[in-house]
Amino acid sequence: MSKKVQYELEYPVRCSPSILFEFLSTPAGLQEWFADKVDFRDNVFSFSWNGSAEEAEVLEQEEDEYIRLHWTHAPKNEYFEFRIRISEVTNMTILVIKDFAEKKEVADQSQLWDYQIKDLFHRIGN
Questions:
Q1: Distance from first CA to last CA of the chain, Å, rounded?
Q2: What is the pLDDT, as a whole number, of residue 26?
Q3: Where is the START-like domain (predicted)?
């Protein structure tokens, strides 16, 4: 049984949900910021970083709203998700990331996401 806990991160983004969704759900978009190389076949993304590879199956997605992925090596109940919300107060686009990590590793994993999201923001001119 996994001891991992779910955590959630939020990032305000200055772009439209449709543009952001392209960067979160397509091989070309993900290759811009998430991995060195990204392929997609039979509902599975193949990600490569410095020669190592991981695969993630698309569990669910709703265009311009969210995509939920499952690392093929991870327990079935674990996933990571990119969700796009619009703030009711500011009308700003918000990227919400849900992921799982060991409790003591949440801070480190959050920093890794922060680094990745900074790269995403640079790519979309945010």
A1: 40
A2: 97
A3: 1-125
pLDDT tens figures, 60-93: 999 999 999 999 999 999 999 999 999 988 889 9
- Residue 34's φ and ψ, nearest 5 degrees, are -95, -40
- Give the domain 4-124 fold: Alpha-D-Glucose-1,6-Bisphosphate; Chain A, domain 4 (3.30.530)
- CA-CA distance, 117 to 125, in Å (whole number)? 12
C-alpha pair distances (Å), 31 with each of 35, 38, 95: 5, 5, 18
H or E segment and range at residue 27: helix 27-33
| Residue ranges per structural domain of the chain | 4-124
What's the pLDDT score for residue 125?
Answer: 87
C-alpha dist (Å) from residue 113 to 19, 53, 63, 107:
19, 18, 22, 10
